[in-house]
Amino acid sequence: MIKVAKFGGSSLADENCFSKVAAAVANDEDIKVIVVSAGGKISGGKKVTDTLLSAWDDVSKGKPLYLALLPFYERIALLIEKLQLNFNVDLQEIIERGFEKDRTPDFLLSRGEYAYSLIAANYLGKRWVDASSIIKFDKSGKLNLEFSRFLIREEFSKGDFLTGGFYGSFPDGKIKIFERGGGDLSGAIIASAIADEYLNFTDVNGIYDFDPKSAPSKVIPRISFENARKLAEFGASVLHPDSVLPLVGTGIPIRVKNTFDFRAQGTTIEESCTERVFCCSVMKDCLYLELTATGRGYMLSGELSKFTDVICSAADKDSLKAVVKAFSGGEDVIKNISVDRAVVKDGMVTACVIGDKTGELLNEAKRNINFVFICENQGCAYICFYKRYMDDFVEFIKKYLK
Question: What angle separates helix 358-368 from helix 390-398, to the nearest 10 degrees?
């Protein structure tokens, strides 16, 4: 059995977290490749990637690189000291020399994973591999999955290794990053090349049937790729929604586990899973649109999807009702679409409900929830309502979570 294990930022936030990672790795001899994120949020401080974002803003405004990166360097130095490492890598010199050749935000933002992977490899006694040598993009910035898999297999033929998530490189060697949370995707790409199972370690016991901070919830034992991705898209931040894509057709499952309770079973995500577990995830800050265009109602969803992500919609010959992600104001979303009339409502919340109870739930929701829009599509129910009714929705959903 070959396992690839990815540890997120919350698993590497400080020296105490590093010790938990070491225990989780020691507990499973099948873990052959480790992928790590940059350190997560600590008391009184930011996530490492947020610190680097601030540094890029400062550099863009003319601040010297060293001064912009000083909070990052100080956090790294303190971590190395507390881990009591014999660490002889001059990260400051390497980063500043690299920035002279690659003065891009991608380079700077990737240095969190670069540094933390070096530190983790030293701490765990693993062979370090720079992610830029195995995760490859083409000139246009598209992931070159098959070439990456070839390079990963070549690297693994030399032995077990540890690397950073979140970034790779263009053909010319310059750094390209995934979107935030893309370390999960890095782990999935590596797993798709060599593994029998992909372990994704975080700070919770798996994927829950609802937000455990809002209502009593339970861990879902097994769920399909499709439904796990849908929950992630709607705000279940345990796993990046694109993490399942490199594993489609491979037969390789994902298991979400807790670094701080690594003996817990977690949630297994399988492409072939047919279990219909009732679960719900909520996306905040959506836009609700009612668009009218005589004779073009069925075409509007396709036109709209060119400019934003359509969450759910219902159309007839002359109109479209849709919920979209609020990347910008409603006027910006529809300004490039020709319509006779547009109604835009912002500050909306949309719940995605999955499972066998969706029909029953929708009927009751229509009677008990002050909703703006309800629809059902491909086995999922969508309920859009104003943010001020969130507490009412939580009370409503609780009885379905029992």
Answer: 140
Q: Are residues 184 and 333 in the same domain?
A: no
Q: Which two tokens stand for residue 105?
A: 């935000």
CA distances from 380 to 230, 279, 308, 312 (A): 9, 10, 20, 10
Looking up residue 208, the CATH number of its domain turns out to be 3.40.1160.10
Q: Which domain holds residue 21?
A: 3-270
Burial class from Cβ neighbours inside 10 Å (0-12, 13-18, 19+) for residue 161 reads: buried
pTM for this predicted structure: 0.91
Same domain? 212 vs 88: yes
370: domain CATH number? 3.30.2130.10
Q: What's the number of domains the chain is made of?
A: 2
- pLDDT (tens digit per residue) in 161-194: 999 999 999 999 999 999 888 899 999 999 999 9
For residue range 235-275, what is the model confidence (pLDDT) as tens digits? 777 889 899 999 999 999 999 999 999 999 999 999 988 88
